[in-house]
Amino acid sequence: MVDKKTLAGLELFEGLPERALEAVAALSQERSYAPGEIIFSPERASEWAFLLLKGTVRLTVHASSLPEPVALASLETPGQAFGFSTVVGQGHHNSSAEAVTEVKAVAIDGPRFLEYLEKEPEVGFVVMRRVARALSRRLDTLRRHLLQTIVDYERPASTVPEN
């Protein structure tokens, strides 16, 4: 079980009532990962959602046409959410998460967390709105990377981008 004060300090749970923090704490555990350790991947069932406490996590996706995985994001800010597929109903991860450095994270039992949020709609609305905001930021970053990749691909080799 994670200390409710730890949860209260994370963006996803800031300002939630004491009873909500206690409920989420009961569904959570603190986990540590060594550099290079895979936290989750598409090959494994999606059962846990994570909030970064310390360290760096790299999110990657394996495109079948490429020999190496493509980096989607590097998470370094405490409180950043990752692996929330289980909470938004996908049931599997479409990316992998790897510890780049020593990582400490809060792991939340996804199915039980979703069940709690459904039973407590006032808390659920606040939390899911914050999850949506985090996913929106991640999609915005991916969109910018995709556009830059397209621009770089289509730029003639003889041109040099200006600073």
CATH class: Mainly Beta
Strand order of the largest sheet: 1-8-3-6
What is the CATH homologous superfamily assignment? Jelly Rolls
Rounded to an integer in angstroms, the radius of gyration calculated over CA atoms is 18 Å
The helix count comes to 4
Distinctive features:
163 residues; alpha+beta; Jelly Rolls; four-stranded antiparallel beta sheet
Q: What can you tell me about this protein's structure?
A:
The chain is an alpha+beta fold and 163 residues long. The protein has a single domain (29-154), classed as Jelly Rolls (Sandwich). The chain is built from four helices and eight strands, in the order ααββββββββαα. The strands form two sheets. The chain has a four-stranded antiparallel sheet. It has a four-stranded antiparallel sheet with strand order 2-7-4-5. Helix 3 (110-119) packs across helix 4. The protein is elongated. The mean pLDDT is 88.
Short account of what is shown:
The chain is 36% helix and 25% strand. It has 163 residues and is an alpha+beta fold. The chain starts with a helix and ends in a 9-residue tail after the last helix.
Topology of this structure?
Blueprint: H1 4-8, H2 18-26, E1 28-33, E2 38-40, E3 48-54, E4 57-61, E5 70-75, E6 81-82, E7 96-99, E8 103-109, H3 110-119, H4 121-154
Antiparallel strand pairs: 1-8, 2-7, 3-6, 3-8, 4-5, 4-7
